[in-house]
């Protein structure tokens, strides 16, 4: 096979361009995982020992299903395919002897594809999926468009499966595989095919019930201007936030006009003016930030190891002035997330501001990140005053402020955490807080990782 054919080799395209294309569906990685799990459950229940060809996503999310199957039916043979240089390590991670590592040729198309092929007299099937690229944008409503997704085909047809296997033969980098393991001739038993579909329908039905329950408990997200701007409670609080500084400033100005006010008293009124101006400016800036969330923004590929050090270094002088130790730990191997870079920066900046404000001298503020399942977790922790448990449900509310730090009044509009929560949700993430009074607080942002198969193609785009 010449280099041009290798660079353009796509198993998905081979299957779809052979005769009538199979019906394809756009799915998420979670749905694909559900389909694969269903097939492996059937193999375990029926104690089938087929020849299995599988190429897992780079996230290795299918390996647990492979382990469970091999522990229940150790006689089966599995060819674990990969286009990565460490493909043998991937097979070894399954820790089952009958798993055979297979090296595939490397190209951008095969990198984005994953598959599961079952070959036996009783049951044969093909699950083939390909990651689809596309820049992610955010509508004015906050809805993400062209989010990374998979296009999947599913077939029990021996002819279709054989077309796939013929393409797979071209993709294998060596000739060490027995040719008999690349042949599908039997249609399988219809009742087992029906069983697979029935189990999948049951799973979908269960998920739908859960989704319906969640939907009933939480209102659908509207544009932020509608969610916040049209709520009477929000408007009432906004009026109070704007009125209070104006009242205090007018009072201070009238007192300053008195000739009897001098020295320390005059300085106290000037400080009041400065504080209330800062408070009102904070309210206006917060409102502008909230309204800007409705603007269309394009997502980017963001590596935390490239973003966090710059943010932390910017705040080092402030931390030094307040006698607070500020540091970070970001693993270099952490996968990227996909969201607007300014949004992610604002999330971290806002939480850092909070930690530095509520942490006394000789305290510590730390930023760290880790990979948990298919999510990157960003944790901003401090040794500050902490948050009372009764405040946990309120801290993300608009205009909500926690108690004072010592004798100092809390500066800000109470919109910072509201903005952070809105940004996180628009990036399909979650935010949580864990705190203990007198010990400190930890805010954790959890964002979905960018599928590894799409990193190169999106970077080039």
Tally of DSSP β-strands: 16
Low-confidence residue ranges: 217-221, 224-230
Helix/strand structural class:
alpha+beta
Could you tell me how far the N terminus lies from the C terminus, measured between alpha carbons in angstroms?
Answer: 28 Å
Write down the overall geometry: elongated
What's the arrangement of strands in the largest beta sheet? 1-9-6-5-2-3-4
Give the C-level CATH assignment of the largest domain: Alpha Beta
What percent of residues are in strands?
Answer: 15-25%
Number of helices: 15
Domain count: the total is 3
> What can be said about the biggest beta sheet?
7 strands, mixed
Return the CATH architecture of the largest domain.
Answer: 2-Layer Sandwich
The helical percent reads 40-55%
Q: Over all CA atoms, what is the radius of gyration? A: 29 Å
> CATH topology of the largest domain, what is it called?
Endonuclease, Chain A
Briefly, what is this?
With 461 residues, the chain is an alpha+beta fold. It contains 15 helices and 16 strands.
3D architecture notes:
The chain has helices at residues 3-7, 11-16, 29-46, 63-72, 87-94, 108-111, 158-171, 190-217, 224-229, 232-256, 263-292, 304-321, 341-357, 416-426, 452-460, and strands spanning 25-27, 51-55, 77-82, 99-103, 113-119, 125-132, 137-138, 144-145, 149-155, 300-302, 325-329, 337-339, 364-372, 375-382, 430-436, 440-448. α3 (29-46) packs parallel to α4 and α13 packs antiparallel against α14 (416-426). Residues 217-221 and 224-230 have low confidence and may be disordered. The radius of gyration is 29 Å and the shape is elongated. It has 461 residues and is of the alpha+beta class. The protein is built from 15 helices and 16 strands. The chain folds into three domains: 3-217, Endonuclease, Chain A; 237-295, Helix Hairpins, CATH 1.10.287; 296-461, Histidine kinase-like ATPase, C-terminal domain (Heat Shock Protein 90), CATH 3.30.565. The strands form four sheets. A seven-stranded mixed beta sheet has the order 1-9-6-5-2-3-4, sandwiched between helices. Strands 11-13-14-16-15 form a five-stranded mixed beta sheet, covered by helices on one side. A two-stranded antiparallel sheet has the order 7-8.
């Amino acid at each position: 096979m010449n280099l041009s054919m290798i660079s353009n080799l796509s198993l998905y395209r081979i299957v779809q361009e052979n005769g009538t294309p199979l019906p394809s569906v756009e799915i998420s990685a979670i749905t694909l995982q559900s389909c694969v799990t269903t097939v492996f459950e059937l193999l375990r229940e029926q104690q089938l020992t087929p020849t299995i060809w599988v190429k897992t996503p780079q996230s290795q999310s299918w390996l647990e299903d492979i382990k469970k199957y091999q522990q229940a039916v150790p006689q089966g043979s599995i060819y674990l395919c990969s286009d990565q240089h460490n493909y043998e390590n991937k097979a070894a991670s399954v820790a089952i002897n009958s798993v055979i590592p297979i090296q595939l040729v490397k190209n951008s198309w095969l990198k984005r594809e994953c598959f599961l092929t079952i070959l036996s007299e009783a049951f044969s099937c093909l699950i083939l999926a390909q990651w689809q690229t596309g820049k992610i944008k955010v509508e004015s409503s906050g809805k993400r468009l062209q989010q990374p997704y998979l296009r999947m085909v599913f077939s029990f047809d021996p002819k279709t499966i054989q077309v796939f296997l013929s393409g797979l033969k071209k993709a294998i980098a060596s000739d060490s595989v027995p040719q008999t393991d690349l042949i599908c001739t039997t249609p399988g038993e219809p009742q087992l095919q029906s069983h697979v579909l029935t189990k999948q329908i049951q799973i979908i039905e269960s998920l739908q019930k859960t989704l319906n329950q969640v939907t009933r408990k939480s209102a659908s997200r509207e544009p932020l201007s509608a969610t916040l701007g049209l709520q009477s409670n929000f408007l009432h609080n906004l009026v109070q936030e704007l009125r209070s500084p104006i009242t205090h400033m007018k009072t201070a100005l009238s007192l300053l006009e008195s000739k009897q006010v001098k020295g320390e008293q005059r300085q106290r009124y000037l400080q009041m003016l400065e504080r209330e101006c800062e408070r009102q400016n904070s309210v206006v800036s917060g409102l502008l930030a909230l309204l800007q969330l409705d603007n269309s923004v394009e997502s980017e590929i963001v590596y935390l190891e490239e973003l966090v050090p710059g943010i932390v270094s910017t705040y080092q002088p402030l931390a030094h002035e307040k006698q607070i130790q500020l540091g970070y730990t970001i693993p270099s191997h952490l996968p990227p997330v996909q969201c607007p870079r300014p949004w992610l920066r604002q999330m971290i900046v806002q939480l850092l501001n909070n930690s530095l404000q509520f942490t006394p001298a000789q305290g510590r503020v730390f930023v760290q990140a880790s990979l948990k399942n298919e999510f990157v977790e960003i944790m901003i922790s401090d040794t500050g005053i902490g948050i009372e448990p009764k405040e946990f449900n309120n801290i993300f509310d608009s205009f909500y402020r926690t108690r004072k730090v010592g004798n100092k009044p809390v500066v800000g509009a109470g919109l910072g955490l509201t903005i952070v929560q809105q940004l996180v949700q628009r990036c399909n993430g979650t935010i949580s807080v864990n705190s203990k009074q007198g010990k400190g607080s930890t805010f954790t942002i959890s964002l979905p990782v960018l599928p590894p198969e799409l990193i190169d193609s999106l970077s080039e785009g």
